Amino acid sequence: MIEEGKTLFVDAFILSILGTTDDGRVLYSKTRMIEELMIMKNLSYEDAMIDLECNVWNAYVGDFTPIYVNDFDSDFDEIKQYIDA
Questions:
Q1: Residues 12-70 pLDDT 10s
Q2: What's phi and psi for 27, nearest 5 deg?
Q3: Entry pTM
Q4: Please, is 74 exposed, middle or buried when counting C-beta atoms within 10 Å of its C-beta (0-12, 13-18, 19+)?
Q5: Strand partners, 75
Q6: Would 6 be classed as within a structural domain?
Q7: What single-letter DSSP state applies at residue 25?
Q8: Which of the chain's ends, N or C, has fewer CB atoms near its CB within 10 Å?
Q9: Order of strands across the sheet with 17-20?
Q10: 7 part of a folded domain
């Protein structure tokens, strides 16, 4: 649910949105954000991740700060190790 005046979006990452929480916070895919930034700024994976960690993911902008999610698909191999163990 998007609440006017409360819901906060991260500029230029519209394709990375997964959805919203019941209280109006936006959920973003970290993997998609990295991919988008790599394309937008022609960065390596590592540089895009550092940029996002320093400038976006660790920023607190109030109660409606977006939530950044580690995608299941990106961690599937690691998760599968524990499921199969």
A1: 999 999 999 998 899 999 999 999 999 999 999 899 999 999 999 999 999 999 999 98
A2: -100, 125
A3: 0.80
A4: middle
A5: none
A6: no
A7: P
A8: C
A9: 17-20, 26-29, 67-69
A10: no
* Biggest distance spanned by C-alpha atoms of the chain: 47
Domain of residue 18: give its range: 14-84
Number of domains within the chain: 1
53 token code pair: 């960690």
Do you know the residue count of the chain?
85
Average pLDDT, the chain: 86
Query: Rounded distance, CA 76 to CA 27, Å?
Result: 19
Q: Tokens 């949105």 — which residue?
A: 17
Whether 66 maps to a domain, the answer reads yes
**Phi then psi dihedrals of residue 84, to 5 deg:** -80, -15
Residue 5 lies in a domain: no
